[in-house]
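CORE FACILITY INTAKE
Project code: CF-77B
Contact: R.S. (postdoc)
Sample description: multi-component assembly, two entities in total
Requested service: structural model of the whole complex
Turnaround: standard
Below are the sequence entries exactly as provided by the requester. Do not edit them.
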Amino acid sequence: MSVLQLRSVSKTYGQEPAQVHALITVDLSVRAGEMVAVMGPSGSGKSTLLTIAGSLEEPTSGEVLVCGMALAGMSPGRKARLRRRVIGYVFQDFNLLPGLTAVENTALPLELDGVPVPKARTAGLAALAKLGVADRAGRFPDQLSGGERQRVAIARAVVGDRRLLLADEPSGALDSVNAGEVMRLLHAACQQGVAAVVVTHDAQLAAWADRIVLLRDGRMTGNTTRPRGPESLLMPGQIR
Amino acid sequence: MSVPHVLLALLSEGPKFGLQLREEFEAGTGEVWPLNVGQVYKTLGRLERDGLAESDGTEQDGPQKRFRITADGREALAAWLRTPPDLTSPPRDELVMKVLVAARVPGTDAHEVIQAHRLYLLELMQQWTWLKDGEARNDLSLALVVDAELFRLDAVIRWLDAADTRLRRAADEPSRPAPAPAPAPQLRRLGARR
């Protein structure tokens, strides 16, 4: 089943003659366990796609479904619950709360959803452990390296039973080795059954995805199609 | 690729047989560039002729002949490592030529051409990345070679993006008087002439 479906989604801002068509009849479907990277130049509509997929904005037309539930007509309360329980967000600048420790940051979405604090903290610690930073649980964000902060941010996005991960330039502030590690961790999270949409301008990071989708001027212009498997494009003798 | 210098590097670790050198060359470069044993012996012959390596004296080339690096060989290796390769002249690049030509051929959409190449390169990068996530995780040599290839392909995609943007902007500029017919595209020679 698709965790995320965008069906002919369009988004328009403003009025003529200054109307901006941020997205134009975009179709996108992401299955559980799949990571899709969205690439495109500035102004192509990548961030708009992410905010609509995350129920933070409504499309002008078309349908958005998360775990089979249509977002159109959903009450604000229900959307907020969806964002707390089903959707995880990873931002370029991490967005960790400076006054909370790593485990407190990670457990926060669960606590906001009413999960008792001890249970939430246990889940937070487990999420940090999966990201390899359980030993940093008691540190504050300014005591963590950039790579560690991003791991905490990912842990916060996947804690609990999140089904959909939305990441906007998740490695933007990191060096290439750490950035690659972040993508590997995101992909590992997908292998646990999460669906992920990652917006990035960086081809090396997009290459971690199972599928890369290209946007330009609000339209989807193409996508890679080769499934992960034997390295058929590589020349004989180039692989063992 | 300087096979002689890589063989000297392997010999700098200690005396070795020809077949051993072939195996270590391939293992040390992630098995991405296969090397046939004939080429190994030919190269060793040249190194011996040039005084950069010596053998244990057996007449015939073969698995019993062991080679070692000489003092001159160590100096040559050190000099090679520190000497930057000649990067002054841009190589003939088929993709660059295709985009240049696509921009001129009537009826050809250069952006479609760019897109086709962009998607192919992205798929190639995916495959290298999946290899890096698999076998190369425990193989430093392979990881370095794969990284080099990923950075190279990334640079090509960045150029395609830049070319795409330039062509769009050029198309949006107000029309100018038609220029005189231009000669076929040529690469301007920069730096040393070939």
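Facility notes:
- Chain B touches chain A at residues 31-34, 115, 118-119, 121-131, 133, 135, 150-151, 153-154, 157-158, 161, 165 (CB under 8 Å).
- Confidence is low (pLDDT under 50) at residues 190-194 of chain B.
Invoice: internal transfer
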